């Protein structure tokens, strides 16, 4: 090819195919955490397949992206993909991050495990300064008592946290923080369901209530109250919880607070799979007079649902399903998972489009601020050699039966990504 012909062809391509960015996501940033301690298939065969020197990590992605590395910052901190995506909370301006460890790290020299019980239960919360997204840094390492932690949620005003715990009689930690994220007061409260551990907790958008999930598979609402005399917060059950299954994951409120969405995996992933799950729409009463929680609608999901996301306008729900992607690489089902969309109107779910993910154990999903795009955190891939996780992106077509199409680019992150939060 003549040089002039080649140049003309290159200019033509650069003005068409190269003009479109491979990733579109309408947000200021996206924060993710990764657990590098084990492969997803370790839950079946016990093999960790660790890479010496690779450590658990937080990644801060800034949009729009560029290829010179300046749009991504990282910090090392311990976390565990054995928990749900609610182990990460970020304040509204994205300057503070809160990560609960839940399970401690193991030495690289330990090649196999018998089960998740080999990872020590911990009660540590890491507080990060992310005011410089290119260099996020752990500012405080804060112990919260005994018993393992399972979830953290931050109030809309950014000054209060609630942590879910397995500590008997102190299943809830109520923590006030200052402008730097430093805890200024720590109080405890018993589970709204006496003697039952709390696995998930979520502040209501109004800030005066919080939803909780119990180890018995119930979802309920509690009122978050500030005592007029002591100015100390406390919580009180607000109506009775409702049973949603045997292995509910993490839940989220619609932006208007009318509905709470949560998926149930039915049973733990294993050698024989887990079967189809379900996604539930729950309605709580936030009136002064308590009312019992109730299920408004429910629909089947794919196998092993891991996390849900709700579009900002409340019209769509996304669910990521692990399927049997976590099986050892020699299994025919390994490496295939799914993201599915549902329409949501007046509390009723309708099935929408879905897409197969060529990746293992997606455990996190988030819409951007316009609801036009979706980010999915994938723990790892059927890769040999250097193994990473990834954040993949999908274009959303809105409607009563929404659909999605995969965007061509993805962000490589430390393997084991399992929680994400959007910064707008």
TrEMBL record:
SUPFAM superfamilies: C-terminal (heme d1) domain of cytochrome cd1-nitrite reductase. Keywords: Signal. It comes from the Bacteria. InterPro entries: Haem_d1_sf (IPR011048), Host-pathogen_enzymatic-act (IPR051200), WD40/YVTN_repeat-like_dom_sf (IPR015943). Residues 1-19 form the signal peptide. This is WD40 repeat domain-containing protein. It comes from Fibrella rubiginis. The lineage of its organism: Bacteria, Pseudomonadati, Bacteroidota, Cytophagia, Cytophagales.
């Amino acid at each position: 090819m003549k040089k002039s012909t080649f140049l003309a062809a290159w200019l033509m391509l650069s003005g068409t195919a190269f003009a479109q960015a491979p990733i579109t996501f309408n947000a200021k940033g996206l924060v993710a955490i990764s657990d590098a301690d084990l492969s997803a298939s370790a839950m079946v065969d016990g093999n960790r397949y660790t890479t010496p020197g690779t450590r658990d990590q937080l990644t801060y992605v800034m949009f729009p992206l560029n290829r010179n590395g300046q749009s991504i910052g990282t910090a090392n901190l311990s976390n565990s993909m054995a928990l749900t995506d609610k182990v990460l909370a970020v304040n509204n301006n994205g300057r503070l991050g809160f990560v609960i460890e839940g399970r401690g790290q193991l030495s690289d020299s330990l090649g196999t495990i018998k089960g998740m019980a080999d990872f020590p239960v911990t009660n540590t919360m890491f507080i990060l300064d992310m005011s410089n997204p290119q260099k996020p840094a752990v500012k405080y390492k804060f112990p919260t008592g005994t018993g393992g932690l399972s979830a953290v949620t931050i109030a809309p005003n950014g000054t209060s946290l609630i942590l879910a715990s397995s500590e008997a009689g102190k299943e809830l930690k109520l923590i006030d923080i200052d402008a730097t994220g430093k805890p200024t007061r720590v109080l405890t409260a018993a589970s709204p369901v006496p003697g039952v551990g709390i696995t998930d907790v979520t502040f209501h958008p109004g800030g005066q209530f919080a939803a909780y999930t119990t180890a018995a598979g119930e979802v309920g609402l509690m009122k978050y109250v500030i005592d007029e005399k002591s100015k100390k917060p406390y919580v009180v059950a607000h109506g009775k919880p409702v049973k949603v299954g045997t292995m509910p994951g993490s839940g989220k409120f619609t932006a208007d607070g009318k509905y709470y969405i949560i998926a149930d995996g039915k049973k733990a992933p294993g050698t024989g799979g887990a079967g189809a799950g379900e996604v539930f729409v729950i309605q709580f009463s936030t009136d002064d007079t308590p009312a019992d929680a109730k299920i408004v609608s429910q629909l089947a999901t794919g196998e092993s649902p891991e996390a849900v996301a709700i579009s900002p306008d409340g019209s769509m729900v996304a669910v990521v399903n692990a399927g049997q992607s976590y099986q050892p690489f020699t299994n025919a089902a390994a490496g295939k998972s799914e993201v599915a969309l549902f329409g949501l109107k007046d509390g009723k779910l309708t099935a929408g489009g879905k897409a197969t993910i060529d990746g293992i154990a997606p455990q996190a999903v988030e819409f951007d601020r316009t609801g036009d795009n979706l980010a999915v955190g994938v723990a790892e891939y059927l890769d040999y050699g250097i193994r990473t996780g990834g954040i993949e992106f999908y274009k959303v077509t809105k409607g009563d039966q929404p659909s999605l199409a995969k965007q061509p680019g993805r962000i490589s992150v430390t393997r084991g990504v399992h929680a994400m939060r959007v910064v707008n």
